[in-house]
Amino acid sequence: MSRYNFYGWETADIKEKHGLTPRDCYDLLSGIWCAGTCAPRMRENWTPENKTLGQCSVTAFLLQDLYGGRVYGVPLSDGNFHCFNLVNGCVFDLTSEQFGETELDYDNCLEQFRETHFAKEEKRLRYEDLKARFFARLPKNP
User: Is the four-CA dihedral 18, 21, 27, 33 of positive or negative sign?
Assistant: First the structure.
């Protein structure tokens, strides 16, 4: 069994300018995601065992910074969207495992925009925190 459970991990072979694949990003983010980067409405349910809970939009927009592409949202029953990435035909969702065995429908989803998401100051600050921590952990090239 793979150590990756996020949607699209099998084909997420694209590389950003540091040579990282989305799987590499997942590995780095696994040590960064925390209650502080989790959406406030979900924070009381966040645990290290469910580290991707409430991390979707800040993570998807960080990955967009790295790979380009677009961020889309799976509509959820509560009226919110679960964000994921589409880059050159490669769909991946680093935070999908928060849904357990529930399969999400990644077809015909609406594009999500950071201007809309980051209109919420707390979300923009969580994104900036996640991004700063991520870049601080990137391996330094000799």
Answer: positive
- Residue-wise pLDDT tens digits, 19-67: 999 999 999 999 999 999 999 999 999 999 999 999 999 999 999 999 9
The values of phi and psi at residue 41, to 5°, are -70, -15
pLDDT tens figures, 93-141: 999 999 999 999 999 999 999 999 999 999 999 999 999 999 999 877 5
Residue 1 has pLDDT above 70, yes or no: no
Residues 6+ apart with CB under 8 A from 117: 57, 61, 83, 123, 124
Q: At residue 64, what is the residue type?
A: Q
Diameter of the chain by CA atoms?
Answer: 48
